[in-house]
């Protein structure tokens, strides 16, 4: 059973998400929070699998709450998915750099929300890849940290190639077709690359691809 905590200051939004999620046989809602502080307390108490976190909330915004969750070793298995009103929210890139596993716009289709929750728990494809590529391309150049290629030295040539393809938004299946290997082999390469670079998940691997200079904004493959 996938346990999801909802964090949004709009009760109507939470109610809509709860109704959708609780109707699924493999998903249950484990708590609701109306602000970032409450969300943080709830996550520490309930240890959900996924937090659907609104970016703009009172007391403590979603970005700050996400950082505290992802920096806490005791919460390393909790995945955070940011909720935004607009596709190119200026805070989303910083949220992903801080450890969020992805993001969704609030008016996303119900099936996409359910797919996203299940995908992020499985550590699979980056959420909303088309939108994410555009967002990363828009904001990667604004990263506060200088780009460095030092971390790439520990990767094999094939792992660097795979990381490039992940960076431009390709799924494991698309990477497999591009490299003429099986999807399982592609997934293994992605997993090994994440381990070597200490990436929390696929979203951070995309960010590292940009920050290292391996991929540059505009390379949408």
Q: How would you describe this structure to a colleague?
A:
By secondary structure, the protein is an alpha/beta fold. 48% of the residues lie in helices and 13% in strands. The chain has helices at 11-22, 36-46, 62-70, 92-97, 110-121, 129-139, 157-167, 172-179, 183-197, 202-211; strands at residues 2-7, 27-33, 50-54, 79-84, 102-105. Strands 2-1-3-4-5 form a 5-stranded parallel sheet, with helices on both faces. Strand 3 (50-54), helix 3 and strand 4 (79-84) form a beta-alpha-beta unit. The termini are far apart. The mean pLDDT is 82.
What oligomeric state do these chains adopt?
single chain
Q: Report the end-to-end length measured between terminal Cα atoms.
A: 36 Å
Strand order of the largest sheet: 2-1-3-4-5
N-to-C SSE string, H for helix and E for strand: EHEHEHEHEHHHHHH
Mean pLDDT: 82
Percentage of residues in DSSP E strands: 5-15%
Structural class, from helix and strand content? alpha/beta
Helical residue percent?
A: 40-55%
**How can the largest sheet be summarized?**
5 strands, parallel
Pfam family, one: GerE
Keywords: DNA-binding, Phosphoprotein, Transcription, Transcription regulation
InterPro entries: CheY-like_superfamily (IPR011006), NreC/VraR/RcsB-like_REC (IPR058245), Sig_transdc_resp-reg_C-effctor (IPR016032), Sig_transdc_resp-reg_receiver (IPR001789), Tscrpt_reg_LuxR_C (IPR000792), WalR-like (IPR039420)
GO molecular function: DNA binding
